[in-house]
Design brief:
The complex is a heterodimer of chains A (about 160) and B (about 775).
Chain A (H helix, E strand, L loop, with lengths): L2 E7 L2 E7 L5 H8 L18 E4 L2 E4 L12 E3 L13 H8 L9 H14 L5 H7 L11 H10 L1 H4 L1
Parallel strand pairs in A: 1-5
Antiparallel strand pairs in A: 1-2, 3-4, 3-5
Helix pairs in contact in A: 2-5
Chain B lengths: L17 H5 L15 E7 L5 E7 L1 H5 L3 E4 L20 E2 L14 E7 L2 H10 L1 E6 L6 H4 L10 E4 L2 E4 L4 E9 L2 H7 L2 E9 L11 E6 L5 E5 L4 H12 L6 E4 L16 H12 L3 E4 L2 H5 L3 E2 L2 E9 L5 E13 L5 H13 L6 E10 L5 E2 L6 H19 L3 H8 L6 E2 L8 E2 L5 H12 L1 H6 L7 E13 L14 E7 L5 E5 L8 H13 L6 E3 L18 H28 L6 E6 L4 E6 L6 E3 H10 L5 E7 L6 E13 L5 E11 L6 H20 L18 H4 L13 E5 L22 H13 L10 H10 L6
Parallel strand pairs in B: 1-14, 12-13, 15-19, 17-18, 24-25, 31-32
Antiparallel strand pairs in B: 1-5, 2-6, 3-5, 4-7, 7-8, 9-18, 10-16, 11-12, 11-14, 16-17, 20-21, 22-30, 23-24, 23-29, 26-27, 27-28, 30-31
Helix pairs in contact in B: 6-7, 9-10, 10-19, 14-15, 15-16, 17-19
Bound molecules: FE2/S2 (inorganic) cluster (2 copies).
């Protein structure tokens, strides 16, 4: 039996019908066409599916949609400002060559954003520890860490 | 030589697909959704070797699922990788098999309205297996009397018998090793082993297939080569190529995992053709890990050397455990010989290689194609020789390396060419200076729990696989270039960008040659119908071969542009020059010294259109005949904890010879990435098997496969990257490749650093903490 839930996705209220076992990742990708959250493993190993749930980085592949009824969801598609301007972290990723294949990028940027929201001046060690659940096979992380640090208050100082 | 001034080449730029990638708009195969699309799942063997007695899909069909087994797919053997010429290609694969040869091999597939339903249907298929004896060790597999995995396979069109599970073997001799070893004053012989690494590209292998009304098929898939996928599908399903269209789409990493046609592709096509509806098939991560891995290696290396450090002879014996299928083992062995002999001059040499079937996941190329394996052995051994000779390991390398003007054959004995650019000396000497090599290397390693050490290793990869002679491997690229009516330029190429920024480099080559601003060069969406052939993005060939072809075609379009401009300006084309005007956002054609005779590229193109002269465009192909080596050296520093056995890489200096750098920050990215995967190769990554069940002990989970994370790497300020001042005369604007070179020497540099720190020589990677502790307890020290 499908149930109705309400999610505020990237600022827009959505009424959705979901099965009790339906994963948030599939609801976002299949029902809402928000394919920025990626399927990389489906079991919480890689972080490609990271979205923000009420501001917290969460793995959409491990989250039942029904369990987060009423939440605010931010996906990578919702990070730009309304006029289309990129978030400073998005700019910084581009600037630092922190994007290669791009498959980990949405999850990595969202995780990085929360880190900077919580801790505007993270040390390198703090950045590395914070993103360690987000796997990137391409970059070796160096330019990602640089991009996050450069977008932080510390990076600007 | 005075370096030319470029406006695009070597300049930092934001990658053209960057905004799409940071905003989640980039579409990958896994993101494609089509109307009426079905979802597919695959039933896989739970045994490492079995014969299927019966398979009953009736219950699954009752659910409304469409099922296929080996009876429903074309009955033929094929090779997944078709870059070798057809007469030299070994074929042992089937779309679905009734003799699974490894745990996880596909035996049936279903398509249903939802993934969930498909999964349920898979669970209802009943299979009766007859278990066959499995073999997991390649030496065991080669023994007389061990049951065969494959009795017969195809070699070209010819059916051949497989003897002792040997899938391919090669012997290559130059000179007379007996004589060479007689001339040696010191002879050293050692055995090295490397692991069976999983690619772990972030996007699981996937396919979406759409059957067309005309009997054709359109395919989106994770691949490094759209044209080879098209040709294979045409061959397997007997569809004319004009009706098989493979679309180019962003790829979520590859590292070799999609160098061949992925096994999901023909399964998806078979389902779609039968269902007459689009089908999507995405592997789970567990399935993906059961699909392919890196070639592991066993290498026995014997070197003869004189007291002055000159190498006199070498003998290398190689056994590669290729798993259940032969993906491209014959060329692999040729390349392994080639990587070896192209590192150091060996007047007399012999190479003997064997690729052996076992009941494991099939091995295939993974960043290096045998090169990291060979380089680990050779560069470890060079350090051992240097120590015996009491020579600095850098001096020994400089004394023997194959360099400028010399012949090399990295891609195997049929791919010989001359080195025309070489930064080896610069990278070793300057690198040593920058890291303070002498002092650190020779410093007394005192006691204490933490021991520090430094190591160096060098290596190379070829840029492509082409040489003057045609050889066994196909290597050429083609492009289409067209100038639009506003002076912007489109180019079409089948060459894939695996994430490294190859297509940005290509855009820069067009911008530079045509003298238009980089933002006026567009990379066109492409598919097999709209492009000419490109072999594959592999062998570090993207910029050099793909870019070389594009450079040539751009030149042809430019000639046409100048011809039209000459009509307009009323001067002969050879009197015309072209330059970029960034302010006008245009290329400008002009006559030097004659004011007023100046017109933008856009005006030329527009005038040509208005006057019905035609579109300014060109199409052509090019085979590069040199495949120049891009050289690489790493200096790595480590801390070894003698209580926990943990090796921590603390510092690294990468020095690369890529010729002219085209994309500076993306080239740096290749080095950072290569270092990371190389360290994982050296320290952690391997897939292991339960010898009873034949299953992966990781179960296909990445967490249990274990990879380095952001936490385990040297800090950003402790990784330095440098490029040599070199120019490759045969490359587009002096460029050569970088991709695979960036990884090849890492493991050896790390092992050499560990030796420097604790005096234990590891001949096997990954070097785990248990290995370190075991070795320290056993006091197996100093070349012991
Ligand atoms: S897809 Fe969710 S963690 Fe990998
Ligand atoms: S950029 Fe490819 S996985 Fe991170």
């Amino acid at each position: 039996m499908k149930k109705q839930i309400t999610l505020t996705v990237n600022g827009v209220k959505r009424e959705l019908f979901v099965s009790p076992n339906e994963l948030l990742l599939n609801v976002l990708r299949d029902q809402l066409g928000l394919t920025g959250a990626k399927y990389g493993c489906g079991i919480g190993e890689c972080g490609s599916c990271t979205v923000l749930l009420d501001g917290e980085p969460s793995l959409a592949c491990l989250t039942l949609a029904i369990a987060v009824d009423g939440s605010e969801v931010t996906t990578i598609e919702g990070l730009q400002s309304r006029d289309g301007k990129l978030h400073p972290l998005q700019d910084s990723f581009l600037e630092h060559g922190a994007v290669q294949c791009g498959f980990c990028t949405p999850g990595m940027i969202l995780t990085g954003k929360v880190l900077l929201d919580e801790n505007p001046r993270p040390t390198e060690e703090e950045i590395r520890a914070y993103i360690r659940g987000n796997l990137c096979r391409c970059t070796g992380y160096t330019q990602i860490v640089q991009a996050i640090q450069d977008a932080s208050v510390k990076g600007k100082a | 030589m005075e370096k030319p001034q470029y406006h695009a080449i070597g300049k930092k730029s934001i990658r053209k697909d960057g905004v799409a990638k940071v905003t989640g708009q980039e579409i990958y195969t896994t993101d494609i959704v089509l109307p009426r699309m079905l979802h597919a799942r695959v039933l896989r063997s739970s045994f490492p070797h079995a014969s299927i007695k019966s398979i009953d899909t009736r219950e699954a069909e009752k659910l409304g699922a469409l099922c296929i087994t080996s009876k429903d797919v074309p009955d033929l053997k094929y090779a997944e990788r078709i870059v070798t010429i057809p007469s030299k290609t070994f074929k042992d694969r089937q779309v679905l098999t009734n003799t699974p040869r490894h745990v996880g091999e596909a035996i049936a597939a279903v398509a249903a309205e939802t993934e969930e339903l498909a999964e349920q249907a898979i669970g209802l298929i009943r299979v009766e297996y007859e278990k066959l004896q499995a073999v997991f060790d390649p030496f065991e597999a080669m023994k007389e009397g061990t049951p065969l995995l494959h009795h017969t396979i195809l070699f070209g069109q010819e059916e051949i018998q497989v003897m002792n599970n040997i899938a391919a073997s090669r012997e290559i001799v130059e000179g007379d090793i007996k004589k060479g070893f007689n001339e040696a004053e010191i002879i050293l012989e050692e055995t090295f082993e490397t692991g069976r690494v999983y690619h772990a590209q972030m996007e699981p292998k996937s396919v979406v297939c759409q059957p067309e009304a005309d009997g054709g098929i359109t395919v989106w898939t994770t691949t490094q080569t759209i044209h080879n996928v098209r040709q294979l599908l045409g061959e397997i399903f007997r569809i004319p190529l004009s009706k098989v269209n493979v679309k180019k789409i962003a790829l979520g990493g590859s590292f070799g995992s999609s160098i061949q046609m992925n096994s999901v592709v023909p399964i998806g096509v078979a389902l779609a053709l039968k269902a007459r509806r689009p089908v999507k098939l995405i592997l789970t991560r567990e399935e993906d890990m059961h699909d392919h891995c890196k070639y592991p290696s066993w290498i026995r290396l014997k070197l003869g050397v004189q007291k002055d450090g000159k190498l006199t002879a070498g003998h290398m014996r190689v056994v590669v455990d290729i798993g259940a299928h032969n993906t491209q083992a014959y060329p692999l062995l040729g390349c392994m010989a080639g990587w070896w002999v192209s590192l150091y001059k060996l007047p007399h040499l012999k190479f003997e290689g064997q690729a052996v079937y076992t009941n494991k996941v099939p091995a295939c190329a993974m960043q290096g194609f045998g090169n990291p394996q060979v380089t680990f052995a050779v560069e470890s051994m060079i350090d051992m020789v240097a120590e015996m000779l009491e020579m600095d390991p850098i001096d020994l390398r400089l004394k023997n390396y194959v360099g400028l003007g010399e012949t090399f054959w990295g891609q195997g004995p049929t791919v010989k060419s001359i080195i025309r650019s070489c930064g080896v000396e610069e990278m070793l000497r300057k690198g040593a200076e920058l890291v303070g090599w002498k002092e650190k290397f020779n410093s007394e390693k005192t006691g204490g729990i933490i021991r520090r050490g430094i190591g160096v290793a060098r290596g190379f990869h070829t840029s492509g696989a082409g040489a003057p002679m045609a050889g066994e491997v196909i290597d050429y690229s083609g492009s289409i270039v067209k100038i639009n009516e506003d002076g912007s330029v489109d180019f079409l190429t089948a060459l894939m960008d695996l994430g490294g920024g190859t297509l940005d480099a290509l855009a820069k080559i067009v911008a530079e040659e045509m003298k238009v601003p980089l933002d006026k060069v567009g990379i066109s969406p492409a598919d097999t119908r709209s492009t000419v052939y490109d072999v594959c993005t592999h062998a570090t060939r993207g910029i050099y071969c793909g870019g070389g072809a594009l450079h040539k075609v751009t030149g042809q379009a430019k000639a046409k542009l100048l011809e039209f401009a000459s009509k307009i300006l009323q001067v002969p084309p050879q009197a015309l020059k072209i330059e970029v005007d960034e302010e006008a956002g245009q290329g400008m054609v002009y006559v030097e010294g004659v004011p007023g005779k100046r017109i933008s590229v856009g005006e030329v193109a527009k005038t040509a259109q208005i006057n019905n002269w035609g579109t300014i465009a060109a199409v052509d192909s090019l085979r590069q005949v040199s495949c120049p080596p891009c050289f690489m050296a790493y200096f790595i520093e480590v801390e070894v904890n003698t209580e926990t056995g943990v090796i921590k890489p603390t510092r690294a200096l990468a020095y690369a010879d890529v010729g002219q750098v085209v994309n500076p920050d993306l080239a740096r990215g290749q080095l950072f990435g290569g270092l990371y995967r190389g360290l994982g190769y050296a320290l952690l990554e391997d897939t292991q098997y339960d010898e009873e069940s034949g299953e992966l002990t990781s179960g296909g989970w990445m967490t249990d496969f274990k990879m380095l994370t952001a936490n385990d790497l040297p800090e950003m300020d402790n990784i330095e990257v440098h490029f040599t001042d070199t120019y490759e005369p045969t490359g587009p604007f002096g460029a050569k490749g970088i991709g695979e070179a960036a990884l090849n020497p890492v493991a050896a540099a790390l092992a050499n650093a560990v030796y420097n720190a604790i005096g234990v020589r590891f001949r096997k990677i990954p070097i785990t903490p248990e290995d370190v502790l075991g070795a320290l307890r056993g006091e197996k020290k100093r070349n012991g």
